[in-house]
Structures are given as structure tokens and as C-alpha cells.
Amino acid sequence: MSTVETPSQNGRSEHGSSRVKRGLAEMLKGGVIMDVVNAEQAKIAEEAGAVAVMALERVPADIRSQGGVARMSDPDLIDGIIGAVSIPVMAKARIGHFVEAQVLQVLGVDYIDESEVLSPADYVNHIDKWKFQVPFVCGATNLGEALRRINEGAAMIRSKGEAGTGDVSEATKHIRKIKSEIAALSSMSKDELYVAAKELQAPYDLVVEIAETGTLPVVLFTAGGVATPADAAMMMQLGADGVFVGSGVFKSGNPAERAAAIVKATTFYDDPSVVAEVSRGLGEAMVGINVADVPAPHRLSERGW
Amino acid sequence: MLRSLGADAVPVRRPEEIADLDGLVIPGGESSVMDKLSRAFGLAEPLKSAIAAGLPVYGTCAGLIMLADTVLDAITGQQTLGGLPISVRRNAFGNQIDSFETDLAIPELGDPAVHAVFIRAPVVEAVEDGVTVLAQLDDGRIVAVESQNLLGTAFHPEVTGDTRFHQYFLQKVRDRVVLPAD
Predict the structure, then answer these.
(1) Which of A229, A228, A231 is nearest to A169 (CA)?
(2) Per the CB 3.0–4.6 Å rule, which of A81, A128, A269, B74 could disulfide with A42?
């Protein structure tokens, strides 16, 4: 375990506990986290009302169009982003690349995203996230995947969607899937949970916990294809705790206004009159591609296991 | 947590929802975003008036920042509701890796110590007359204060399930409902 205890006159003091790691995600609930590739974009995101920014080398739409191996950002860029904003800074590491994660922890990022958007570094194992003091967020397309990540130490889950497309359909599919699988567990009798755990390929203890509480033990955001205020509001109505917006902001015609509009629509997700108002005159949304037109080997959501 | 203590808790996002309140909790989150949205949706001014009129408000973490008259390390243009005559430094401990949990002796709440979770938390750097300091870290930094109708903590009692701060706040609310200030 990575927690560090120090003696205190008041009593014990502890860093890096699950409570502290999961707690930061709790504080981001109801908010929007935006992908940024440099300090200028990070400032725009903060100005627009993002609750956190996600540092990465290229936004998913560019990774998709340019191809090649996508990796952790240059530390200089991450330092620049941390220096530019006062909201939390997250950064992406490749799946299984525990050294990129070590580097990001040393750089002082507030959260690490072990992300399928980057090229995986290990096609078998994910990072052992318990070894770190910095918390991790991981993607999931279904409940079993979410619970496997939590079992490895993830302190926050985001449904994957299909990053870099501007097509919200996969995000919808994944959040609905996770929510419906949680609901199904809640309605099962105790003797059915053994098989449920087997079918979900998830640890039995976590399955029992979900069945009892009816919710994940960590915050659940949604990601991958959100491009408009209405997209964000729909994800919230489907039960997401908050929204990641990747290419949708900085691949659009007017990033600052679109970012602010998505923030407002996420807060007032259940009020169509606010969503309508903020959706006016935003200019061009990212052009996007339909997920159906993306050949299966290039679908990012199929990375991670 | 407030519901478990017998209070009727409702979320507040619109100005028209303020009039019906007997008390308000401003929770953790990102203070710069709370500020922007509260001004954009016309919540800030009616809240300031309500605070001035004696509405009991409890702010945790970002909520404490919203109640402070002065914020250090704010983002450009960041404003607060104010009411607590204190200076608060935003994100005073550093990055998330410096977030921590610890026990705090708080005489007003009795034994045992309150187990407090600090997540990218602020600290109170200066207090003016009339502010009661409820809790300090070992190094003397102030992390819980009270002044008339306002209560603020840099940490999150709701994260640990310790209800004493919320009970303490609810008592303030009940006192005022039973005996209106004017």
C-alpha cells in the first residue's frame, strides 16, 4: 500500500489513502474535465469553468487522424499546464505503462488517467494502481471492466465512449450498460451473485458491495464523443456524475464559448431551457466521424481488458 | 447526511430557490467554477443578501472559500460571496499528492477528535475580530472557523460519516428558526 503515515499531535496523519484519492473525484462531481495539449488551452478551459484539465500529447481526434504511437505528454508541457492553472491537472499514461505513471506522479499531477486513448504499453496487465499515492481514473465499457479497474486501485471510473469522434453513441452505450448492470445486480438475490461475479469477470467482494449499495464505490464520469451542450446534458441525465470533453472543445469553431456552454449545460442538465439557451450561436461543432465508419481495429474503446 | 439528521435537504441552483431556505451548505468542489456559475445564473447577489440578513451557511473546502471576504491565490477575476472576515489561501497544501487525512481536536464538538479529510484544501491565513477559531493543525494553521451565522471548514466532514459538524450547524439553523434574529 502506498499510504504514508506521519505522527501528529492531533493524531495520525495519512497521505494517499483511498478516501483521499476517491475524495478528489467526489469534489469534481457535476463538473466538466477538458482535454488540453498546452498551457494556453488549459487557461481557456479554466476560464470557461472546467473543474479540472486533462493533459495529453494530442487530442484524440488528432491521434486518430495522424496515427502513430500516442504517449504521455512531454514533462515540459505538463509543467507548463500545472503552472498555468489552479484547478486540478490530470494527465494520461498508456495502459500498463507504470513508468509513465511514476513520472507523472513525480511531476505532481493531481490524477493519472490510464487511458486507452494512448497506445497501450502492455496488452495483458494494467498498472497496479495501489502502488501509487496519486489517484487514477480508468476507462470502462461495462461494469465488469470498471470493477477490475477498481480492484487494481482506480479511484474514479469514466465510461469510455469512442474518443476523438464527436459521435456520442458509444458514450451513451457504455454509460447505459454500466448503469443497467448495476441495477441488475441490485435486484439479484445473494445466491445469484457468485455467478454474476463470474460472468462479469469481477471480484466477488466488489460485486456484493455493488449489489448492496446500488452504486459504484467511486465516482463515474462519462467520456468519448461528447461535442455539444446537449450531449453533456444527456450523459448527466443518463446518470453520469460528470463529463470529460476531449476533442469536442478544441476541435470546434469557438472553443472558449463552447467550453463554457458545456459547463452550464452539465450543471443544468435537467433544464432544457438552459441547455437551449447555451446552445445558441456556438458556431461549428467538431466535424466528427461516425463510429460506424471507424474500422474495428481503430476503435479505442476496445483497448483495455 | 443532513437528511439522516432530520433536515429537509434540497439542492439549490436557482435564485428563486433561496427564499425558502432556513440554512445553506456550500459543499466541496472547485471554488472558481462555483463563483462563475453562481454569478452567471444570478445566485450570487441574492445569496450575499441572505447571508447579510443572517441566513446560516456552512461552507466546506471550496464552500469555505466562497464565504471568505478575501481569497489568496484566486484565479483572475474570482469573487466570493463573503461574510466571514477572514483571508483564505486556496489550495494551500499543494497538489493532490499532498492531500491527507488527520485527527483534529475540536473542544466545541467534544471527544473523540474529528477525523478530517483535506483534499487540495484551503487554509485560513488571517482572521479578524469576531471570528472563533474552531480547529488548527499541529503547525497552527487554522482549518475551521465560525462567525455569527457562518461556519467554515477547510476539510470535508461528510467524507468520513462524522455528523458532528453538520449537527452543530443544524443547531444554528434551529436556533434561528425558533428565535428569528429580528
Answers:
(1) A231
(2) A81
3-state helix, strand, coil in chain A (%, to 5): 45, 15, 40
**Tens digit of pLDDT for each residue in B115-146?**
999 999 999 999 999 999 999 999 999 999 99
Distance CA B106, CA B167 (A): 14
Identify whether the C-beta of residue A22 lies closer than 8 Å to the C-beta of residue A135: yes
Which cell numbers hold the place of A138?
480508468
Q: By the 8 A CB rule, do B164 and B109 touch?
A: yes
- Residues within 8 A of B (CB atoms), A 33-52 only: 46-47, 49-52
Beta strand residue intervals within A101-249, DSSP E:
111-115, 136-140, 156-159, 219-222, 243-245
pTM: 0.93
The pLDDT tens digits of the residues spanning A18-68 come to: 999 999 999 999 999 999 999 999 999 999 999 999 999 888 888 888 888
Would you tell me the crossing angle of helices A255-267 and B31-40 to the nearest 10 degrees? 90
Interface subset of A 245-284, CB within 8 angstroms of B:
263-264, 267-268
Q: What is the DSSP string of A74-120?
A: PHHHHHHHHHH-SS-EEEEEETT-HHHHHHHHHHT-SEEEEETTSPP
What's the N-to-C CA distance of chain A in angstroms? 24
Q: Which three cell numbers stand for residue A207?
A: 460485486
| Contacts of residue A68, Cβ cutoff 8 Å, sequence gap at least 6 | none
